[in-house]
Each structure stands twice: as C-alpha cells, then as structure tokens.
Amino acid sequence: MQSPLFTPAKNGYLLFADANDNEPVLPDYTRGVPKGIGFTRKKPPVWFEWVPIRIRAMVAANIALLVAGVPDVVERVDPMAAFDGRSGGVLRVVSKTDGKKLAEYKLDSPPVFDGMAAAAGRLYLSTRDGKVTCMAESGA
C-alpha cells in the first residue's frame, strides 16, 4: 500500500502523505529474497488517494499539495496519446490534511518533469509546449 503503484487506466497513482517520523524498514521476510518488496514504513500513511494522473510535477503550498501530469487514460484510437502529452495535462489541488481533491484544471499541455514552483500565493507551471504559466487565486 505504501509503494508508488501504477496501473494504467485503472486506479491511477497512489498519492499518500506520511509522518516525517515514519522511518523506512526492510521487513525480515524480504531479506535475501530476489525482487522482494523492498523498504516499507513502520506505520500506515496519514492519508492516501488514488489519483488518475501520471504525475510529473508536484509542489506543496500552505494548505494544499499541487500535482500535475498527463491524464491516466488509454485511448482506443491512440493508446499513447496521453502518455506522449497529446491529450494535454491535468493540474489537481489536494488537501494536505486528508488528500481530498479541492480543485482540478485541464491544461493544454502537460508539465515538464518537476516543472512547478509556488511562491507568494502563485503557482508557476512550465509546460512541454515551452510556456510558463502563472496561476493565482482570484483577487491575489
């Protein structure tokens, strides 16, 4: 449950928040086993949500976590369209407290890898079409 799981066009990505004191451990039953589960956490995550986005960029703001990427869909006519960025992108805002979706926006182009920054109440998003977009709450 605490690994970065991905199942195309089914559940999406597992996005979760963990306490900073939750140290990784290597369970005894996986030691010496080829391709064991690897490290996990002692305690369960604070929250988790399946997100239908192939996340490429993420940034934490005051009360929200912003994630962006391509939609997790496999189109029948062009199965690689979303993966290649031809289906645009998605920006999702989730609560840092419980992981629930606060807002979601369609993007004309997906973000570049790690292409988001938040400062002074604004989000700066670099997209694969060569643009940098600045977003802010209305009135900000």
Mind sketching the topology for me?
Layout: E1 6-7, E2 12-17, E3 24-25, E4 40-41, E5 47-51, E6 53-60, E7 64-71, H1 81-84, E8 89-95, E9 101-107, E10 111-119, E11 122-127, E12 132-136
Antiparallel strand pairs: 1-2, 2-5, 3-4, 6-7, 7-8, 8-9, 10-11, 11-12
Architecture overview:
By secondary structure, this protein is mainly β. The chain has one helix at 81-84, and strands at residues 6-7, 12-17, 24-25, 40-41, 47-51, 53-60, 64-71, 89-95, 101-107, 111-119, 122-127, 132-136. The protein has a 4-stranded antiparallel sheet with strand order 6-7-8-9. A hairpin with a 3-residue loop joins strand 6 (53-60) and strand 7. The model has no long low-confidence stretch (mean pLDDT 85).
In short:
By secondary structure, this protein is an all-beta fold. It has one helix spanning 81-84, and strands at residues 6-7, 12-17, 24-25, 40-41, 47-51, 53-60, 64-71, 89-95, 101-107, 111-119, 122-127, 132-136.
